[in-house]
Amino acid sequence: MQHAVGSPLPPPHRPGQGPHAGWAPAAHHPGPPPGASPGPAPVPPPGFPVPPGPPRQPPAGSVPVPPAPPRHAPPQPTPGPPPAPDTTGHVPLPPGGPAGVPSAPPAMVTVPDPAATTLAVLLIGPAGAGKTSVAKYWADHRRVPTAHISLDDVREWVRSGFADPQSGWNDNSEAQYRLARRTCGFAARNFLANGISCILDDAVFPDRPVVGLGGWKRHVGPGLLPVVLLPGLDIVLERNAERSGNRRLTDEEVARIHGRMAGWYGSGLPIIDNSQLDVPATARVLDEVLARAIASPPSW
Q1: Is pLDDT of 150 > 90?
Q2: Does the domain spanning 114-295 belong to CATH 3.20.20.70?
């Protein structure tokens, strides 16, 4: 049986339904009367494919309506917390000098134990006073992490072009000392910011407060605790004679430095005469001096 060309085939007959039940036969629907608005385009049922064709333009004067979001929009992933910054081995330095001035404890309060307190100590003394030996021993035997920073060690990091003051003090040797002090000061601040105490040693002269003590205060912070190690001249000469290399000075130079160091008397800084003390005994006296300095910080 032939059907007219262009007419759709009817669906197959199913039991309980008439031959044309539920089926809309193809018919020619009358179009809109002449001059009438074409109206909105028919919306196909859900899941029915939209036939391709050119996009329909909205009638003139109509307001475009944005497409409605899907009924069941897929859940958007919730952004997680930002990754933690890599701070391994580094703690940003706080503003200002991290070595804050220790506050005097109120009455009837136990003075903090200097052996278990984070401190920044500057050990001052002439060549041969035992600064390096005492500083190393003191740092080795504390109950809290402590670093020893030696100005001479840092200054000798310069290999090629090293300016040895024994060959004549000049602008180059002065510049290297200033650079070494700044490097030691930065290292001390970094250790302190990470909760590690430090002790520095340097031959600071009282007649050069801006270059010496004032410079250390600027580099490390106002909480730096200076202590002078000043044995007798005969002891200093004896210890200097045991040195070797560029750290051994002439007797005349040692005597001149020792005489200038005597200017610390009357300065208000604590002074330890370790002429009759060995290194462990001097370290114990240093703890006693620091305990008093924590309770009543010196003015300098």
Answers
A1: yes
A2: no
More confident residue, 60 or 89: 60
Q: Please report the pLDDT score of residue 65 as a whole number.
A: 60
Looking at residues 46-71, what average pLDDT do you find?
Answer: 57
DSSP the chain: ----TTPPPPPPP-TTS-TTTT---------PPTT----SPPPPPTTPPPPP-PPPPPPTTPPP-PPPPPTTPPPPPPP-PPPPP--TT--PPPSS-SSPPPPPPPTT-PPPPGGGS--EEEEE--TTS-HHHHHHHHHHT-SS-EEEEEHHHHHTT--TT---GGG---HHHHHHHHHHHHHHHHHHHHHHHTT-EEEEEE---TT-TTTTHHHHHHHH-TT-EEEEE---HHHHHHHHHT--GGG---HHHHHHHHHHHGGGTTSSS-EE--TT--HHHHHHHHHHHHHHHHHSPPP-
Let me know how long the chain is.
300
Q: Give the phi and the psi of residue 267 in degrees, each rounded to 5.
A: -85, -15
pLDDT tens-place string over residues 239-251: 888 887 767 888 8
Residues of the chain with pLDDT > 70: what percent? 60
pTM, full prediction = 0.62
Q: Is the pLDDT of residue 107 over 50?
A: no
Which pair of tokens denotes residue 205?
A: 């002269």
